[in-house]
Amino acid sequence: MNVLLPLPFALPLLGAALAMISRRRRFWLRVLAPLVGAGAVAASVAVLVAVARNGVVAVQAGGWAAPLGITLVADRLSALLLVVSSTVLLAIMLHAVAEGAGALDRRSEPGVFHPAYLALTGGVGLVFLAGDLFNLFVAFEVMLASSYVLMTLQPTAERLRASMTYTVVSLTSSIMFLTALGLTYAAAGTVNLADLSERVPALPAGTRTALGLLFLVVFGIKGAIVPMHLWLPDAYPAALTKVTAVFAALLTKAAVYALIRVETLAFPREHGSRVMLVLAAGTMVVGTLGALANDDIHRVFSFTLVGHIGYMLFGLALFSVAGLTGAILYLVHHIVVQATLFLVSDLIQARTGETSLHRLGGLARLSALIAVLFFVPAMSVSGVPPTSGFVAKLALFQAGLGSGRPLAYAVTGVAVLASLLTLMAMARIWALGFWRPRPEEAGEPPAAEPYTRGGVRVMQAVTAVMVAGGLLIAVFAGPLSSWSARAAADLVDPSAYRRAVLDGRAP
User: Going by C-beta distance under 8 Å and a sequence separation of 6 or more, which residues neighbour residue 157?
Assistant: First the structure.
């Protein structure tokens, strides 16, 4: 176990170093990066199996006992998200490799993409395994430093402007994170999450509330919770589509995961959080209304992403096993579906050169396959039965209605309304982009994609696999719900987490 637990982030970081050394050897990079990604998936699955057999597993790096040393922890929540995120990262990597290998213009494959992507993969893995706040901070910085590079690939004026906004906002949240970390250590004398779960209850109520709200703001900025979301709809659509796919799928979800971990371990609430419930409702409404008001497909998807962060926050705000179960199901569903939507958008862009609904049309006639690949995840993100989105939303609705709290009832109503608004946004893309005749002012679509036929087929195959993955979440909803419920129970009662980390603690 001492060797296994670091592998999901150590392998990609080692791969990033090798890729950086050989960044001019394109063929080698196309072989190395997927192999490293596959290794990270295998390591994540091994961690999941270990957690299924042994419960919470923890490693004290360097032999320093907690809370002094670096603690790595895997429980049901982190192991599940490790497997899902590493699989999605591998799929997007394969899509990017096919795009680069099949590009007719070889300049469209920057050599720095692969090392930056692998470093980001390592950062995501470390986020899910960090057992203390400082290493959680380090993990976010590894992830964000890589994202700064990815954001500016193939620079344009718009992309550089968006990347500046993204960088400033990310650095601001990082400074606030570091401040919150220092204040927590000053108040409790530790930053180990398991140790904090024992020490924080002894702090004055005002201190607990202030620290809890500060972490909510930190991860609210990183996770694009309304009103801290304004940076995302401008920043994400400006990046390359394959980069936006991984950002949308994982960066905000890593922040939601960190918020769940910090709020349940260090600052738990017995009766839920009214502030979070209000923020969740506002995030759902603002995000989905923004999706309806925009014309560019990438901006529609980005606002949809913002709106659906509200669903995960809703589950956390209930602070119950049922609510957290819904939040975990929603995390898994949305990581897969959001990445799939952007991969489909990449296929649309390759075929038409457009992402604006005013200039799109006739896609269903142009490519029936792309129509199918869009329709399935679009229905899933809208929560139409029997997709994975429906399963996750049903769990949240049941948790909200079963909470016995009037405010939770109201937020459940808002969640239903946001689902309908999401369906309208997806239906608008479906009607205008796929079934309306192509507008005359848009001219004829390009005669061929800017990729070889083989490259396009691999990109389509990877996207089809992602669509199938979303369907499998619905097919295996029973076992997944059962695993998520046990993960949620572990969050509500963290005694097993504490025992795994603190047994044999330093004196």
Answer: none
